[in-house]
């Protein structure tokens, strides 16, 4: 059986500055074994991006729902996703033209997922993201955030050359879609270079059907629980609008990794490791004994180094 929940919340910065929520999400249940979902994040610097995110989410999911059939081939499904992205962007441009606005005032990201049994098909544009829980109980990054060398987002407007439209290579149990703020909390800076670079304990909280008890408690109860959790995230951690959508197939058979895979990381040790590595990269001349990791610098230099350590 296919289940889903979705939460969109206005970010603290937008509340403080009286800016409308520019995130949007849409979920369509097509059958007991097929569901379509999308999240979109209107670029905060653009005046009408909230219109664009709503348009992209609704049109892309509705188009896919109308055109993907139970007997559609992989090639046909991916073609429909591409067409839905084109339709979304063309419609956004038409809305801008009718209102006498520039196209770039309607920039938005768009990430769309179609789960059919344990098969994931997806389309992606921008710096939102998609994560999959595979049938071996692992959490895997499906998409990469699309930004240029200066950190600027590459939105839907950039077109087919930048869109990523694929079938995921492994069978999946659940799929997590999120706009950038919520997506990034699953990849804390202190574990980015670790063997497991995703915050698995938090991913399990969002995505594991058994942990969520979604069959017994129902979608509304789970959605309310996730919404309360998201509301409790501090503005220091996520200041932007927050959107999370999770779709899952509770009929999919899956196993779990050993318990330590999902254990809460040792954040104190990881922070120290990160700070030590940062110091060594920033001040290589202060480290005289590379093998023994002996630090040789004055008290004043140590104070300056600590001031320069970036916050998570």
Give an account of the 3D structure.
35% of the residues lie in helices and 23% in strands. The chain has 10 helices and 12 strands. It folds into 2 domains: 2-262, Phosphatase 2c, domain 1; 267-308, no CATH class. The chain starts with a strand and ends with a helix. It is an alpha+beta fold and 312 residues long. It is globular and about 65 Å long. The longest helix is centred in the N-terminal third of the chain and has 25 residues, at 74-98. It has helices at 12-16, 49-67, 74-98, 180-184, 200-207, 209-212, 214-217, 219-231, 267-282, 299-308, and strands at residues 2-9, 23-31, 34-41, 110-116, 119-125, 129-134, 139-141, 164-167, 172-178, 242-249, 287-289, 294-295.
Write the layout of secondary structure elements.
Elements: E1 2-9, H1 12-16, E2 23-31, E3 34-41, H2 49-67, H3 74-98, E4 110-116, E5 119-125, E6 129-134, E7 139-141, E8 164-167, E9 172-178, H4 180-184, H5 200-207, H6 209-212, H7 214-217, H8 219-231, E10 242-249, H9 267-282, E11 287-289, E12 294-295, H10 299-308
Number of β-strand runs:
12
The shape, in one word, is globular
Tell me the CATH architecture of the largest domain.
4-Layer Sandwich
> Would you state the CATH class of the largest domain?
Alpha Beta
Q: Which ranges are low-confidence, i.e. pLDDT below 50, for 5 or more consecutive residues?
A: 293-312
CATH superfamily of the largest domain: PPM-type phosphatase domain
Question: Rounded to an integer, what's the Rg over CA atoms?
Answer: 21 Å
State the domain count.
2
Mean pLDDT, nearest integer?
A: 91
Give helix and strand order, one letter per element, not per position: EHEEHHEEEEEEHHHHHEHEEH
What share of the residues does DSSP label as strand, in percent? 15-25%
In whole angstroms, the N-to-C terminal distance is 39 Å
Given the structure, what is the number of helices? 10
Query: Which structural class fits the helix and strand makeup?
Result: alpha+beta
**What is the fold named in CATH at topology level of the largest domain?**
Phosphatase 2c, domain 1
Biggest sheet strand order reads 1-10-9-6-7
Helix content: 25-40%
Largest sheet: 5 strands, antiparallel
């Amino acid at each position: 059986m296919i289940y889903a929940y979705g939460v969109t919340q206005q970010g603290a910065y937008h509340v403080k500055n009286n800016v409308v929520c520019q995130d949007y999400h849409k979920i369509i249940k097509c059958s007991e074994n097929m569901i379509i979902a999308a999240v979109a994040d209107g670029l905060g610097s653009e005046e009408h991006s909230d219109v664009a995110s709503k348009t992209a989410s609704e049109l892309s999911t509705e188009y896919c729902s109308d055109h993907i059939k139970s007997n559609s081939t992989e090639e046909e499904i991916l073609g429909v996703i591409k067409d839905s992205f084109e339709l979304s962007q063309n419609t956004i441009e038409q809305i801008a033209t009718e209102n006498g606005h520039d196209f770039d005032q309607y920039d938005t990201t768009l990430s769309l997922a179609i789960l059919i049994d344990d098969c994931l098909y997806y389309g992606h544009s921008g710096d939102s993201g998609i994560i999959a829980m595979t049938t071996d109980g692992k959490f895997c990054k499906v998409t990469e955030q699309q930004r240029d060398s200066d950190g600027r987002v590459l939105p839907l407007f950039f077109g087919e050359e930048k869109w990523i439209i694929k079938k995921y290579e492994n069978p999946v149990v659940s799929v997590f879609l999120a706009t950038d703020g919520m997506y990034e909390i699953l990849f804390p800076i202190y574990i980015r270079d670790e063997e497991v670079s995703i915050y698995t304990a938090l991913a399990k909280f969002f995505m594991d059907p058994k942990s969520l008890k979604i069959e017994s408690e129902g979608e509304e109860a789970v959605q309310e629980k996730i919404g309360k959790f998201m509301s409790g995230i501090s503005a220091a951690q996520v200041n932007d609008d927050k959107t999370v959508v999770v779709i899952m197939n509770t009929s999919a058979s899956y196993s779990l990794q050993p318990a330590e895979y999902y254990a809460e990381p040792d954040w104190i040790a990881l922070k120290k490791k990160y700070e030590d590595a940062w110091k060594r990269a920033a001040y290589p001349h202060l480290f005289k004994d590379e093998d023994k990791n002996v630090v040789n610098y004055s008290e004043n230099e140590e104070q300056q180094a600590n001031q320069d350590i970036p916050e998570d």
